[in-house]
Amino acid sequence: MTTPPSPTRSDSFYARVDDAQRQALLQAYIDHLQARNGQLDPSTGRLPRREASLETMNASDVRYAGQVSQAHFDRLYANFSASDPHLDPALLLLLLFCKMNAGEAYGVRVVKAVHARRWQQSQDLPSRAIAFAQEEEEYHTRILVGAAHHFNIQAGGEYVPRLALKVLIGSLAYAPRLFFFPILYASEVAGVYIFNWTLKRVRSLIPDQPQLAEALEQRLIEIIIDEIGHVGFNRLVLGEQGRGLGRLLAGQTARGLPLMTPELGAAGFDASALRGFANFDLHDLPEQARQRAFFA
């Protein structure tokens, strides 16, 4: 659900926002979140429309046409090695999904522990929007780890975050309010970039299994839709200096992603994969995601 075109509409993640439209666009984003997710059930903390979407994905009978050992998965999940002789592309793809899930879950847990009370107590539009968006992040972790369903694998081992991820999440959680949104903005832009890169890698890793590839791609599409909105939201709450700082930090964050999730490097995310980052914008994302996302 995109917002109607306006004179300030741009495909750029970093374009200036018209101050006269800022509040109306923030309200439009909250309306979009409620329409996409359903009203949050305070007794369960669940979003009904996302529960239904997740149930549909997890009901899929598409399965990997091969064998993945639970013991081998568990070993590489706990201690990943790109040189493991039994690391085939399908297993690498599954590990990448599950490690992105674990990284997101870690970040959501730490940031919510520090900020959730403030968001819940404040009724200003940015606080309401970010509290809702954080619930979407919770669903991202379940969407990603649900990829294991297609491989008949149980994914739930202990996750030890890498130092680079701890530094990023710590800076986000404990940054003064002045810097919180630029850091979050940078993280969201880098995040949507890596999800889009992974989306493009799926079929090259499992080229002979189009149904499985499509099932995994649809999980990533659902996340990209949300991430577009998160980028757009952070752009709405930042002024010119904040957007400039966020843009600088986004490049640094993107370059550090393989340090946070080494499975990315093993899947081919290297210096050449970052060449398009400086000009990365809305038009680089799948049309299906653009049509269903909020961006203004």
Walkthrough of the structure:
This protein is an all-alpha fold. It has a single domain (22-41, 72-292), classed as Heme Oxygenase, Chain A, CATH 1.20.910. Helices cover 65% and strands 0% of the residues. It has eleven helices and no strands. The chain has helices spanning 22-37, 48-58, 70-78, 89-121, 125-145, 163-174, 177-205, 210-237, 240-260, 262-266, 287-292. Helix 4 (89-121) runs antiparallel to helix 5 and helix 7 (177-205) crosses helix 9. It is globular, with a radius of gyration of 19 Å.
Tell me the span between the first and last alpha carbons: 11 Å
- Largest sheet geometry: none
> Topology as H/E string?
HHHHHHHHHHH
Number of helices: 11
- State the CATH class: Mainly Alpha
Mean pLDDT: 90
Give me the CATH fold name: Heme Oxygenase, Chain A
Shape: globular
Based on CA atoms alone, the radius of gyration comes out at 19 Å
Helix-and-strand structural type = mainly alpha
Residue stretches low in confidence (pLDDT < 50, at least 5 long) are 1-8
Q: What level of helicity do the residues show?
A: 55-70%
User: Would you identify the CATH architecture?
Assistant: Up-down Bundle
- Please count the beta strands (DSSP E, at least 2 residues each): 0
Count of folded domains = 1
Strand content range: under 5%
Describe the secondary-structure layout.
Blueprint: H1 22-37, H2 48-58, H3 70-78, H4 89-121, H5 125-145, H6 163-174, H7 177-205, H8 210-237, H9 240-260, H10 262-266, H11 287-292
Helix pairs in contact: 1-5, 1-8, 4-5, 4-6, 5-8, 6-7, 6-9, 7-8, 7-9
